[in-house]
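>> received
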Amino acid sequence: MKIPRPIAQIRAITPWSRLGGRGGCIAAIVVEAEAVAHFVVSDMTRKTYSPGLAALARAPADKLKHFIIQADEAQAEAAGFSPRETRKKARAG
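>> returned
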């Protein structure tokens, strides 16, 4: 049996309390880009989603609890999220 190559590797886990929060942990995860190209990040506050994982990198640490990583756009839309309009799209429209 061939063991599949992992798409993610956890590098470090930091207790949230060391970062000023209460309870929980934050994990630094290294992921191969092509393995997660289809993922989307959904914002539970705005009920929108963005393609890729870049939204997680831009978000402040205290707001990460409002994000969900979903497998693809279809899964996000089935859960009631709509595509997030970028500034370029909003100005053009």
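>> The longest strand covers residues 8-15.
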